[in-house]
């Protein structure tokens, strides 16, 4: 059964988003455990990567240019679109906050499942996460009417736990464990790390179901907006990186389409307004359709 799930992991990500929508009470109950899943997935993914190669990627100019596209450029684009469509202030704040959000920590595992360079995706993910505090601060300054009191202590704790913690853990494991023993361990567990990704769509979509039960038409609007955001981020990133080759373009596109809304909410909380969590929940369905679409697009481009 597990092997079947691994082989069909991309469509099952979407299936778990649907299950979370159909079982909102279970989804909401599972939500508090998502940070533990985040840490585990990040640690296992980093264990399979050479830290010196990852640091080398992070020191390249191209990775930080991508981070600027992922946050600053897209924040500007969605704010103009939101202003043009006359979104109310809460919804405008929510969509710009999504634009400020770094890539999902599950992205490298998804990229690896697609057959692309997971190390590149990991470097992109870390870079976009590191610029998140500045991006979200700018978002709140310009789009939030309350006094801005970011929980910086909470953010830096999460930064250490979810980024530097797994990196240091991986470094020490590679340093002190025999490579042969570690390689055998990784060969056994690596195929199954993708299963942890299923937790995110399942645990995050519950807030969207709550909105759907209260106001189906508003929920539909949020779903259309969420789908539009995913498509916009994906398409613009693909077009921007198309000249670098198909693999890099698709990696950048899916990394841009995946947004770590859980981490953003952990940092800013209620300052993001009442529209953010329902929009974050609505994002789960198109987000986890992106890998399936990307695999189809990859095969189409081969023809």
From TrEMBL:
It comes from the Bacteria. The keyword Membrane applies. Keywords: Membrane, Transmembrane, Transmembrane helix. The chain crosses the membrane at residues 12-42, 63-85, 91-111, 123-143, 155-177, 189-212, 218-241, 262-285. InterPro entries: Na+/solute_symporter_sf. The keyword Transmembrane helix applies. This is Bile acid:Na+ symporter, BASS family. The lineage of its organism: Bacteria, Pseudomonadati, Pseudomonadota, Gammaproteobacteria, Oceanospirillales.
């Amino acid at each position: 059964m597990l092997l079947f799930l691994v082989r069909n992991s991309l469509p099952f990500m979407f299936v778990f988003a649907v299950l979370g929508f159909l079982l909102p009470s279970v989804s909401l109950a599972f939500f508090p455990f998502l940070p533990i899943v985040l840490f585990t997935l990040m640690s296992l993914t980093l264990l399979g990567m050479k830290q010196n190669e990852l640091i080398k990627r992070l020191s390249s100019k191209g990775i930080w240019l991508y981070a600027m596209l992922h946050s600053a450029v897209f924040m500007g684009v969605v704010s103009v679109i939101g202003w043009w469509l006359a979104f109310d202030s809460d919804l405008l704040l929510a969509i710009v906050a999504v634009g400020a959000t770094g890539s999902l920590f599950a992205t490298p595992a998804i990229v690896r499942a697609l057959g692309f360079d997971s190390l590149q995706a990991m470097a992109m993910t870390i870079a976009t996460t590191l610029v998140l505090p500045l991006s979200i601060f700018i978002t709140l300054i310009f789009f939030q009417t309350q006094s801005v009191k970011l929980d910086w202590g909470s953010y830096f704790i999460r930064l250490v736990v979810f980024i530097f913690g797994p990196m240091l853990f991986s470094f020490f494991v590679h340093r002190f464990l025999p490579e042969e023993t570690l390689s055998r361990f990784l060969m056994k567990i690596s195929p199954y790390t993708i299963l942890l990704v299923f937790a995110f769509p399942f645990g995050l979509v519950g807030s969207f179901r709550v909105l759907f039960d209260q106001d189906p038409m508003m929920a539909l609007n949020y779903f259309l907006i969420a789908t539009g955001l995913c498509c916009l981020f994906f398409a613009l990133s693909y077009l921007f990186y198309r000249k670098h080759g198909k693999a890099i373009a698709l990696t950048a596109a899916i990394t841009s389409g995946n947004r770590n809304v859980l981490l953003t909410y952990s940092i800013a909380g209620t300052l993001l307004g009442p529209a953010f969590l329902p929009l974050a929940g609505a994002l789960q369905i198109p987000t986890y359709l992106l890998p399936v679409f990307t695999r189809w697009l990859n095969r189409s481009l081969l023809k």
